[in-house]
Protein backbone atom coordinates (compact mmCIF):
# COMPACT_ATOMS: atom_id res chain seq x y z
CA UNK A 1 0.00 0.00 0.00
CA UNK A 2 1.01 3.62 -0.29
CA UNK A 3 1.35 3.98 3.46
CA UNK A 4 3.34 0.72 3.58
CA UNK A 5 5.80 2.01 1.00
CA UNK A 6 6.17 5.21 3.01
CA UNK A 7 6.81 3.17 6.16
CA UNK A 8 9.49 1.10 4.40
CA UNK A 9 11.33 4.23 3.30
CA UNK A 10 11.78 5.23 6.96
CA UNK A 11 12.96 1.74 7.94
CA UNK A 12 15.49 1.63 5.10
CA UNK A 13 16.97 4.91 6.35
CA UNK A 14 17.38 3.50 9.86
CA UNK A 15 14.60 5.73 11.19
CA UNK A 16 11.49 4.77 13.09
CA UNK A 17 8.19 5.20 11.30
CA UNK A 18 6.45 8.44 12.38
CA UNK A 19 3.60 8.06 14.86
CA UNK A 20 0.84 9.12 12.49
CA UNK A 21 1.90 6.64 9.79
CA UNK A 22 2.41 3.75 12.19
CA UNK A 23 -0.80 4.43 14.09
CA UNK A 24 -2.77 4.57 10.84
CA UNK A 25 -1.33 1.21 9.77
CA UNK A 26 -1.96 -0.51 13.09
CA UNK A 27 -5.39 0.80 13.97
CA UNK A 28 -6.66 -0.12 10.52
CA UNK A 29 -5.46 -3.70 11.08
CA UNK A 30 -7.10 -3.90 14.51
CA UNK A 31 -10.57 -2.96 13.30
CA UNK A 32 -12.90 -5.92 13.62
CA UNK A 33 -10.70 -7.83 16.08
CA UNK A 34 -12.54 -6.65 19.19
CA UNK A 35 -14.01 -10.11 19.86
CA UNK A 36 -10.63 -11.85 19.73
CA UNK A 37 -7.58 -12.02 21.96
CA UNK A 38 -4.58 -10.63 20.11
CA UNK A 39 -0.96 -9.80 20.70
CA UNK A 40 0.90 -6.88 19.16
CA UNK A 41 4.65 -7.12 18.61
CA UNK A 42 6.55 -3.82 18.48
CA UNK A 43 3.56 -1.51 18.77
CA UNK A 44 3.08 0.95 20.36
CA UNK A 45 6.61 2.38 20.44
CA UNK A 46 5.80 5.92 21.55
CA UNK A 47 3.46 7.42 24.12
CA UNK A 48 1.46 9.07 21.32
CA UNK A 49 0.93 5.63 19.72
CA UNK A 50 -0.02 4.16 23.11
CA UNK A 51 -2.55 6.90 23.73
CA UNK A 52 -4.08 6.42 20.25
CA UNK A 53 -4.27 2.66 20.84
CA UNK A 54 -5.90 3.18 24.25
CA UNK A 55 -8.62 5.31 22.65
CA UNK A 56 -9.60 2.47 20.32
CA UNK A 57 -8.82 -0.67 22.36
CA UNK A 58 -8.73 -1.87 25.94
CA UNK A 59 -5.23 -3.13 26.66
CA UNK A 60 -4.98 -5.83 29.34
CA UNK A 61 -1.26 -6.55 29.45
CA UNK A 62 1.99 -5.19 28.06
CA UNK A 63 5.02 -7.48 27.88
CA UNK A 64 8.51 -6.03 27.77
CA UNK A 65 11.26 -8.30 26.47
CA UNK A 66 14.36 -6.85 28.06
CA UNK A 67 17.11 -8.10 25.73
CA UNK A 68 20.51 -6.38 25.57
CA UNK A 69 20.92 -4.30 22.41
CA UNK A 70 24.18 -6.08 21.57
CA UNK A 71 22.28 -9.40 21.43
CA UNK A 72 19.64 -7.89 19.14
CA UNK A 73 22.27 -6.27 16.94
CA UNK A 74 24.18 -9.55 16.54
CA UNK A 75 21.03 -11.44 15.57
CA UNK A 76 19.81 -8.86 13.07
CA UNK A 77 23.13 -8.25 11.38
CA UNK A 78 23.60 -12.01 10.98
CA UNK A 79 20.35 -12.25 8.99
CA UNK A 80 20.54 -12.76 5.20
CA UNK A 81 17.71 -13.46 2.77
CA UNK A 82 17.02 -14.97 -0.61
CA UNK A 83 15.00 -12.13 -2.19
CA UNK A 84 13.03 -14.18 -4.72
CA UNK A 85 11.65 -16.67 -2.19
CA UNK A 86 11.88 -14.75 1.07
CA UNK A 87 13.89 -17.56 2.71
CA UNK A 88 15.75 -16.25 5.73
CA UNK A 89 19.11 -17.48 6.99
CA UNK A 90 20.95 -16.49 10.13
CA UNK A 91 24.70 -16.93 10.13
CA UNK A 92 24.67 -17.85 13.83
CA UNK A 93 21.87 -20.41 14.17
CA UNK A 94 20.47 -21.20 10.72
CA UNK A 95 23.27 -20.62 8.21
CA UNK A 96 23.15 -21.56 4.53
CA UNK A 97 25.15 -24.66 3.54
CA UNK A 98 27.47 -22.40 1.53
CA UNK A 99 28.05 -18.91 2.90
CA UNK A 100 26.26 -16.26 0.86
CA UNK A 101 24.35 -18.78 -1.30
CA UNK A 102 20.71 -19.93 -1.10
CA UNK A 103 20.52 -23.66 -0.27
CA UNK A 104 17.82 -24.40 -2.84
CA UNK A 105 18.54 -22.22 -5.86
CA UNK A 106 22.27 -21.52 -5.51
CA UNK A 107 21.52 -17.81 -5.99
CA UNK A 108 23.23 -15.11 -3.91
CA UNK A 109 21.81 -14.05 -0.57
CA UNK A 110 21.46 -10.39 0.33
CA UNK A 111 21.33 -8.44 3.54
CA UNK A 112 18.31 -6.17 3.86
CA UNK A 113 19.15 -2.49 4.30
CA UNK A 114 17.51 -2.50 7.74
CA UNK A 115 19.74 -5.43 8.85
CA UNK A 116 23.03 -3.67 8.08
CA UNK A 117 25.04 -2.84 11.24
CA UNK A 118 24.90 0.95 10.90
CA UNK A 119 21.15 0.90 10.29
CA UNK A 120 20.50 -1.51 13.17
CA UNK A 121 22.52 0.69 15.53
CA UNK A 122 20.54 3.80 14.54
CA UNK A 123 17.23 1.99 14.91
CA UNK A 124 18.13 0.60 18.34
CA UNK A 125 19.19 4.04 19.59
CA UNK A 126 15.95 5.59 18.33
CA UNK A 127 13.95 2.70 19.78
CA UNK A 128 15.56 3.12 23.19
CA UNK A 129 14.92 6.86 23.32
CA UNK A 130 11.29 6.58 22.21
CA UNK A 131 10.15 3.48 24.05
CA UNK A 132 11.42 4.13 27.59
CA UNK A 133 8.51 6.56 28.11
CA UNK A 134 6.07 3.92 26.76
CA UNK A 135 7.29 1.41 29.33
CA UNK A 136 6.82 4.05 32.04
CA UNK A 137 3.34 4.85 30.66
CA UNK A 138 2.20 1.23 30.94
CA UNK A 139 4.05 0.65 34.22
CA UNK A 140 2.07 3.55 35.75
CA UNK A 141 -1.14 1.90 34.51
CA UNK A 142 -0.10 -1.38 36.17
CA UNK A 143 -0.10 -3.25 32.85
CA UNK A 144 3.65 -3.84 32.30
CA UNK A 145 5.34 -7.19 32.87
CA UNK A 146 9.06 -7.42 31.99
CA UNK A 147 11.07 -10.52 31.08
CA UNK A 148 14.88 -10.34 30.82
CA UNK A 149 17.28 -12.60 28.97
CA UNK A 150 19.16 -13.31 25.78
CA UNK A 151 17.75 -16.66 24.65
CA UNK A 152 14.22 -17.34 23.43
CA UNK A 153 14.08 -20.87 24.84
CA UNK A 154 14.91 -19.53 28.31
CA UNK A 155 12.55 -16.53 28.26
CA UNK A 156 9.56 -18.17 26.54
CA UNK A 157 8.56 -20.59 29.35
CA UNK A 158 8.21 -17.63 31.73
CA UNK A 159 6.20 -15.63 29.21
CA UNK A 160 3.98 -18.63 28.46
CA UNK A 161 3.31 -19.25 32.16
CA UNK A 162 2.42 -15.58 32.59
CA UNK A 163 0.12 -15.62 29.56
CA UNK A 164 -1.63 -18.70 30.95
CA UNK A 165 -2.69 -16.54 33.91
CA UNK A 166 -4.20 -14.04 31.46
CA UNK A 167 -5.56 -16.49 28.85
CA UNK A 168 -5.92 -19.88 30.55
CA UNK A 169 -7.85 -21.36 27.61
CA UNK A 170 -4.94 -20.92 25.17
CA UNK A 171 -3.25 -24.26 24.51
CA UNK A 172 0.50 -24.72 23.98
CA UNK A 173 -0.26 -25.61 20.32
CA UNK A 174 -2.25 -22.39 19.86
CA UNK A 175 0.47 -20.34 21.55
CA UNK A 176 3.08 -21.65 19.11
CA UNK A 177 0.99 -20.85 16.03
CA UNK A 178 1.58 -17.33 14.65
CA UNK A 179 -1.49 -15.52 13.35
From TrEMBL:
InterPro entries: Adenylat/UMP-CMP_kin, Adenylat_kinase_CS, Adenylate_kinase_lid-dom, ADK_active_lid_dom_sf, P-loop_NTPase. The keyword Zinc does not apply. PROSITE patterns: ADENYLATE_KINASE (PS00113). It comes from Chaetura pelagica (Chimney swift). Residues 79-114 form the Adenylate kinase active site lid domain. Gene3D superfamilies: P-loop containing nucleotide triphosphate hydrolases. HAMAP family: Adenylate_kinase_Adk. The keyword Nucleotide-binding applies. This is Adenylate kinase 3. Belongs to the adenylate kinase family. GO terms for molecular function: AMP kinase activity; ATP binding. Keywords: Kinase, Nucleotide-binding, Transferase. It catalyses: GTP + AMP = GDP + ADP. Transmembrane segments: none annotated. The lineage of its organism: Eukaryota, Metazoa, Chordata, Craniata, Vertebrata. SUPFAM superfamilies: Microbial and mitochondrial ADK, insert 'zinc finger' domain, P-loop containing nucleoside triphosphate hydrolases.
